[in-house]
Amino acid sequence: MKYIYHPEALAEYADAALYYEERTARLGADFTVEVEDAIQSILKAPDRWRCIEEDVRRYLVRRFPYGILYTMEQDDVLILALMHLSREPGYWRHRASR
Fold it and tell me: Burial of 66 by CB count in 10 Å (0-12 exposed, 13-18 middle, 19+ buried)?
């Protein structure tokens, strides 16, 4: 199984990594490692994490206050959002209608 990012999710990922790197050297790299580890866990068992809305599931990233919101497509995992947990819930919903 492989994964793809919604373009807005990829932008969130880049913005978050840059934010952490600007705060402390190597923290952006640490964030990236945690997110990539999370994605590998999702790919191993995509139906393991709970549904938060219809077929959208959430994986909580370790060490950082982020959730990866994703759906399972035919042959892919579609990452809809890399959401900071203090963001307004549901801001990403329009992305699910792809």
Answer: buried
Q: Report how far residue 79's alpha carbon sits from residue 8's, in angstroms, rounded to the nearest whole number.
A: 10
The structural domain count of the chain equals 1
Domain extent at residue 12: 2-85
**Strands of 76-84's sheet, edge to edge?**
2-5, 76-84, 66-72, 56-60, 51-53
Phi/psi for 87 (5° steps) reads -70, 160
The pTM is what?
0.94
Confidence of residue 1 (pLDDT cuts 50, 70, 90): confident
Residue 92 placed within a domain: no
